[in-house]
Amino acid sequence: SHVDNRYKQGLLRTMLGRAHRLSSSWSHFSDECDRLKTVFSRLKYPKHLIDSATNNFVDSKVCDQQRPLLPTKETDDTIRVVLPFKDQTSENFVKGQLKDLSLKVNTNIQPVFVSRKIDQELNVKEAKPSIVNEQCVVYKYQCDLCDAGYIGYTRGHLHNRVKGHKQQSSAIAKHCKNVHETIPQDLLKCFEVLKKCRNKFDCLLYEMLHIRTL
């Protein structure tokens, strides 16, 4: 039966490739080529077809060895190009372009793709809790009518602590009554959070440190 030459060439290339991969040196590969020529000649393959396929395969391997190869390990000469990541298709295309450019200039050029964080994509702004919702904090009271100040801490909500400072027994309330003869209605605006703490020990520690700065 007739077999198209394309299939014969394909089988020849396959066997030559297998022989090349299994050969540890060019001399061994040359011996394998001679054996393959003998085998395919017995199978009635045309001599010109065997010689053509063998020569083309050998020429391609010689060209591959003569082509300048990039170092497999990264060196200090590696040029890294930072690029924004868009999608996988674009990434593969850019890698191919830079690989071709690396061969032309004989320099290893590697792309470094970076992606924007999701909060940047969505323009999400961190919601800062209102001062009235803060808890477990060291706070400062600054009188808006004089230079008097007060530093304290609370493990509960700050707005509850501010309400407590409006009572007559509070040092802040006594200051307002004795010095200014009135307690401001909007007392909360005179407070600021100095430190957000994790536990009572942190509150006591940072309260002491901030008091020393007064």
From TrEMBL:
- One Pfam annotation reads HTH_animal
Q: Which residues form a coiled coil?
A: none
* Domain C2H2-type residues, every copy: 143-165
Question: InterPro entries under this entry?
Answer: HTH_animal, Znf_C2H2_type
Q: Which domain of life is it from?
A: Eukaryota
Q: What is this protein called?
A: C2H2-type domain-containing protein
Identify the species of origin. Answer: Pocillopora meandrina
